Predict the structure.
Amino acid sequence: MLEIKNVTKKFGDKVALNDLSFKIPEGSVFGLIGSNGSGKSTLLRVISGVYEPDEGSAEIDGVPTYENPEIKSQCFFISDFPYFYNNSTIANLSVLYKSLYPTWSDEKFRRLACMFPIGINDRIINMSKGMQRQAALMLALSVTPKYLMLDEIFDGLDPVVRQLIKKLLVEMVTENNSTIIIASHNLRELEDVCDHIGLIHSGGIVLEKELDEAKLGIHRVQIVFDKEIGEGAFAELNVVKIQRQGKLLSLTIKGDGEYIEKYLRDMKPVYMEMLPLTLEEVFISEMEVVGYDIDNIIK
Amino acid sequence: MTLTTLSSKELKPLYNWALRRNKVIIIIYSAFLLLNGPLLDMFVMSIGRFFDSDFEEVGAVSLGIYMAVAAFFTFVSALKTFSFLHNKRSVDMFGSLPTNRTTMYAAHLLGGITAVTVPYLIMSLLVIGMTARSGEMLKLSLFMIGTTLLMIIASYIFTSLIAYCCGTIVDTAIVTIGANAIWVGIIGLYYGFITEMIPGIDFEAIIDTPLLSMFAPYGFSAASLVYYMEEQTGSLVTLLVWQFIYIAGALFLALLAANKRKAETSQNGFSVKWLPMVIKAGASVVCGGLIGFIAAEVADSGYNNMFVFCFWYAVIGFVAFSVLHLIFARGLKGKIAPSLITYASTTAAAIAVLFMFSFGMGIDTYVPSPATVKSVTFSYEEFKDPENIKTITEIHKLITEGIRNNEEYPYYIGNDDYYRNDEIYYEDSYITDDAEAWDSSGSGSILKDSDYSEIQRYYINQTNFDFNYKRKVGFGVTRNYYIYSYSNDKKYDYSKIYELLTKLYSSDEYKKIKNKELFDDEEADKIQSGSLTYFYYFNDNYLQSGEASLPINDAFMTEFREALRQDILNDTKYQPSRYFSSYGKEAYPFIGDTCIHASIRYLTDDDNSSQPYYEYNYYYDDYDDYDDYHYDYNNNTRTVTTIIKPYYENTLKVLRDYQINPISSRNYQDYTYSYPDSYYEFCENGRPDTLRKLAEDSAFDFVSAACTTSGANINEWMDINYKTYKEDLLKKADELYKKYMLDTETHDQPKHSGDYYIDNYTYQTQADTILNDLLGYTFEYVELTSNGSAVF
């Protein structure tokens, strides 16, 4: 169990993480989403022991990760821009990681080397951005860490490799009961692979749920009335957003689906349809709740 | 860095990784070392055959270059090894690896140091192999290898510490170079100010290599090399102990920084916020101070120089501060106000310190308490006797009190009077009619040149007094004063100083110091043989020098030494023998008396292969050329020069017993101005009556010399024998005229030889020969007539 306990991290006057607390269940694929600069990458660095939190701690099985080699040997972090020295190759990095991580698997490394279309003796610095990510992931998966932190891992990857990676990640969770935390703005990919999501904004957690639960907790309704209905008519519902196109109203409403449907049908609409939300829509809706929407940005 | 860290399983892979990071550097570094070490040494060895005496110096230069290469690559390697701290991406990678920060630091440090030291050691083994044939060079090579290793370790740790304090590699490089240079610069300026402004402090005497390199680790091996070459072994031990302490301290701080550094500092300024401010302030002090100092020196307008300094200090200091601010803040982004406040306060503090220096800060009047002094070297001689130490401190106090009465107080930059300049020492001289004026120079004897000119003026040099105190505990104190003594102002109480000098030079300790071959049995035991090289009479009016080579036997040498030893110890008015003219009514009463000036050259059994022994025995060729030294490079000869005074009864008796007297070595080629006028007349006209006049004019001086040697009482002898002697002398002169002056064939006219035509004096050679014979005749005459019974 990975637990974030009251973590605060400041960079000078700027608060990157503000008393953040939540838990990530073991064996889950946790999608960390949030606006730009919300603190996702910072949180990953705190979890992986790169940054020392100013307050609180990131703990694995009750033990802080910072300056704890034993705990850190169960973790692997791939940052948004993986770093390689000028003369680094996958082969010589494998020597380093093999020596440092007791869970390193040569067999897995060989299997992955065949799987990914990159040479293990080529200088990584000469590879494309996507290939560099593949190289980093090859090494990470060979370590078979208990906790894998990935920051914007899908950036620069072609759709086929993305599918491959998603497959490998799911396989890792299935085989090793690993926990994977992926910070990304690519919500479409996250939706495919994550079973939990955490939404961060301005250093605080906005939402932390199972993905399905998150998606079920918010609904988009298209509804038409034959008479003029004021917005006050929906006062009893937790309406996040109302859009009007002639007589067609599009409502984004949080709450229990059955209750919302019954409530609206009782209002005798001419037409009504409840539509499922994508993760992106959930994200936008949730962010609108905290005042982060396009209208506010334009203003 | 504990044993747990060093034994941790993560250390090895990270260490290997750090080594791998240095692969390219190792190759280039090894190539440079090969070029500058073994290959340069081959060159040195080859030229060493031709310039054997400079062999060690050339070798030291080559080792110096070798050392500089090591220092440069230490810097480059350390920057590269710890550059992982200065890139956010690499911080992510290394920060997330399963190890702690101490292990991470230790692995990189050890890997980096290995990368620099292993090639160095391998190349050094080649150097050792090549220099093994020369004992000195081998010793020097081993020494430099050891101290350079210390430098590498210290510098690597220092640079790693700075790397952990900085956010970027550029800042790390600037701060590392800056911190080393600023320390040296500030210490240099400190020395510059106090030596330039405060009398008595001599830059070369106090410049302290360990202090200069104290917090500039890249200078560690340079400091060691300086100490090695100067053979200051005591200080070298202190230096090496300090270097070990420094390494331990820097390592502790680096570990602290490694554990405290916030990872987010990478590419983002400094993790130690005050560091850039310190570097900016330090750079402004050094740059402003240096340019201000030069400007004040050039201005040379008295106390206004201080204001010239302040102006240029403020301007250049601001420029240096601003440039670094722009670099560190990457433009004008940083907070300007705190920087300006720092600059202003630093400038105010530096200028305040400068003005404090101008009042001496007590340094100018400081004289160590005699009780705390173990020994003091005063004008080249080391005194250990507490009584003499006390006397020297009293002289020192009189000088410092005099300085405070100087019209140049408070002191200022650019006052040339305060510091020593050898050129001025020999070129600036002063003529005074003041008979009381005196000069102390060289080893401290008091001189008067009474023969400078016809009107009896006194040729006076500037006067220097050197004090070098060794304390029983703690640091030594060195002061060199360069004071004017030609004027009659009341700055210095000359008579009191003079009295104390007399007391000092009359002490047994001084006599023993000045006559090691007489008093030091160990020195005396080295003597194998000897010869009398200079042996002549002198007094104020009768000054002659003679050069001879009279072999002296062991028996004479033993007796002569013992007798002279007793006489010198009994001499209550002793003065060093180095100078042939002295002044002082009370202390040196023999002026006007006839003394014997004797130089005895001994051949010792010193080992020729050791450090060459430089005996430089200097004297004045003539009065217009004071810096004409004569060196004796023989490494196993010692020259003892001594003055045998009229009252050295024991010594004179030995000379009489062995029938050794100056007559046998005298000639008249030097000091022609001391001859009577009749001598020059005779040289020109060669007439017999002129020779008679010359004999008559010289009679008293001849007698004076002969009486001194024979031990006869000159007054008694003169009363009894002088009249008869003069008549006999004139007869002898007539005989010699016939013998040397008349043509052997015609016997009726003077000889005229173009071969002897010297300085317009036709008969000079004949005149010298005749005078020589007349002097010999007088010695025999006095010996016979005094019968050895006359005493003082």
Notes: Chain A touches chain B at residues 11, 45, 48-52, 67-70, 72-73, 75-77, 79, 81-83, 85, 87, 92, 95-96, 99-101, 149 (CB under 8 Å).
